[in-house]
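FAQ
Q: What does a multi-component entry look like?
A: The components come first, one per line:
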Amino acid sequence: MISYSFDFSFLLTAWPAFLRGAWLTIVLAGTSIALGFVLGLVCAILRSGKSKLLSGLVGIYVEVIRNTPFLVQVFIVYFGLPSLGLRLSAETSAVIALVINTGAYSSEIIRAGIDSIAKGQLEAAECLGLNKLQVYWHIILIPAVERVYPALSSQFVLLMLSSSITSQISAQELTAEANMIQSETFRSFEVYLIVAAVYLALSVLFRVVLWGIGQFAFVRRRKLRT
Amino acid sequence: MITFSSTHLIYLIEAARWTVLLSVLAFIGGGAFGLVLALGRVSQHKWLRWLSAAYIQIIQGTPLLVVLFLAYFGLSILGLDIPPIIAAGLSLTLYTSAFLGEIWRGCILSVPKTQWEASNCIGLSRMQQYRHVILPQAARIAIPPTVGFMVQIIKNTSITSIIGFVELARAGQIVNNSTFEPFITFVFVAIIYFAMCYPLSLASRHFERKLNVGN
Amino acid sequence: MSVTEAAGTRPRNETAPGAEPIIVVDNVSKSFGPLQVLHGVSLTIERGTMVAIVGRSGSGKSTLLRCMNALEEINGGTIQVCGNRVAMDDRASVKRLRSEVGMVFQSYNLFPHLTVLRNITLALTVVQKKSRADADAIAHKVLGLVGLADKAEAYPEQLSGGQAQRVAIARSLALSPKVLLFDEVTSALDPELTGEVLKVMEDLARDGMTMVLVTHEMAFARRLADIVVFMHQGKVWEAGPPAEIFADPKTPELRQFLSSGL
Ligand SMILES: Nc1ncnc2c1ncn2[C@@H]1O[C@H](COP(=O)(O)OP(=O)(O)OP(=O)(O)O)[C@@H](O)[C@H]1O
Ligand SMILES: [Mg+2]
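Then the predicted structure of the entire assembly, as tokens:
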């Protein structure tokens, strides 16, 4: 039996670094969620739109992203793009990779919502005199997003967790901070235990905030307590 | 200057065998443990339900990379000089089990309640109910999402490159270090991953359609 | 049976109907691919009348109604609504049509994500650009007409089928259309709930609303319709006042249809 004494004393000096890391992860993930949602929305609209070309292109984009690892996507953006003459900071690369990744997943989720809108809804709205754009906005897009909002929220929490991978290109976030602390204190196991706890707290936080946004944005959810 | 060549490509493809092996290990280990978790989630014992739910919540709320680090450094605390594949396999198993456990729980719950009642009436014990009535039906529903999750497993094995396990992603980094052609190298890495994952994605969708038609 | 009912007319609170055509369907044909569904249908609907369209399943009743409201493109003939020719490719004409024609569907088609009130005010604010306050006032008024003043804040899923259908009628009414089209609006309802919807339609008819309804409610058509149109194989097979249609069918097809107990 090997005896190992846990030592968390590094926390006395390192806790601000953990907090900073957590904050950086919130910023990184928050930015990526907002942009990724917009990208996903646009892609879902194009995917279910009339243009075969655009819909096909979005389809390829979605399949490519969903069937390759995020780590490799990050490497292509950060290491690969400079060889094509596009040099980006680690943080910018991280956001771009996260947005591209989430955009693909979100667009599939939102598209499922769009597909689930019954044709009768559109006809009813047309009969009330709404024009194409108004129908699309009020009768298709808003209810579609409302319907798939729980799935989108789970996807966004997954995004926050995957952002840890961007530590591999030294993007400044929680895991990168932890790697640094770990290399200074040599209390690797303890450091990552703390990090795991912080991520757990962050995923609870993200879930709560996303839930709150849903309650605010979709009145029916609030009223019917769904 | 060395440029990316067919030798490099072959090296990548050979490394991909480790990706496959690791994926299979994770699927077997994670599947076995996941089944236990799924049964725990729907168990009649409150504390079993609670325990498996807590486990799933914790793993699903922690990045795989951190689970990997914990497995890697945790095992080395035990003083074992273990090869990276053990830490890689262990963390992927823990991770996979949580997700499969949750997926399969949903499948078990989607078997109609009347099936429980009917099989109870003919005198089957709870184990027999699972074995002969519930699980066979749940398994049918479980096929599409399970095959779909295999894609996640394969992609997630790439993270084990970070602790130095030489699978496809790590091989890509090694090739890049000698060719200095990151774009081509990682695009090829991505293509190989795609070639492994896309057929599974298609299969998952195919099974799902078949299931929907059947119902 | 009262005297007026036996005579096939109903009491009205405005001038005698029949002077002014609201919808004129002239020799309309319509095909879905190789399947021709309407074969030269002609029909005139006068202001303030209720026209009931009856016929077997698949005889083209819904299709005719949908053509009147530019939900389907016609392949031949013309349709005029309030003096304007309906053309699906002419945006301005469709826009005008929508403001004149309201439609109620068998499946209600309420918007599930909006309250009853917002279901009604959506088009008032978005299409007619009314203020929220004005729109709300109109909505409350029409909800009162259909007897659902207390349901303004409910969501569609909280309504019974009969209530949902009355909201759908109120939603159309709010836009003050010149004519209302009803496509089997009670077919999805239990018998107990059918009555409350028919009651609302009866009130509308008595107030002089021009209505075209596809229906299986023969008793209702017989009692309240001014004209009953029997469609068969995509044609207007017989049409006339209910007294004639029901008491004295001219064709064997109508006789058979009536005796089949539909
Ligand atoms: N969008 C469509 N595409 C192809 N065929 C259609 C379409 N809509 C209707 N049809 C066909 O046109 C014919 C007439 O349909 P319609 O719905 O007008 O009948 P209906 O008289 O309303 O019948 P029901 O009483 O069953 O509602 C049917 O044979 C139907 O299958
Ligand atoms: Mg019909």
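Q: Is there any commentary attached?
A: Sometimes. For this entry: Chains B and C do not touch (no CB pair under 8 Å).
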